[in-house]
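Appendix B. Raw example, untouched.
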Amino acid sequence: MLAECQDSLQVRIDTQRFEQVMTNLLSNAVKFSPKSADVTIHASLEGSCVRIRVTDQGSGIPIEFQPRVFEKFAQASAGNTREQGGSGLGLAICKEITERMGGSIEFTSSAKGTEFSVLLPNIN
């Protein structure tokens, strides 16, 4: 796992809930990446927000599933997700927690991988 962060970034968060968000995003990134592929974490200032990106090198989220990725109990395909395990609640919980901390969560995905971004207000 690779991590990169600028020194001057500061956010006000519920540390336990933020840890839950990051644990879920990292767990998903590892779960859906090929063995020995890199998962990267990058934090940067973007306007008045801190953007924390978790990027994997998996096969991506199927385009037909992307509109439902943050819905409760949503799982991409029975075969792929069932093989990996999970309840389909993790990303819905991440979205709720992030929004309660005044932020947002979004993603981009392609056949070369997926990147989830958590945006939180910068307090610096």
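End of appendix B.
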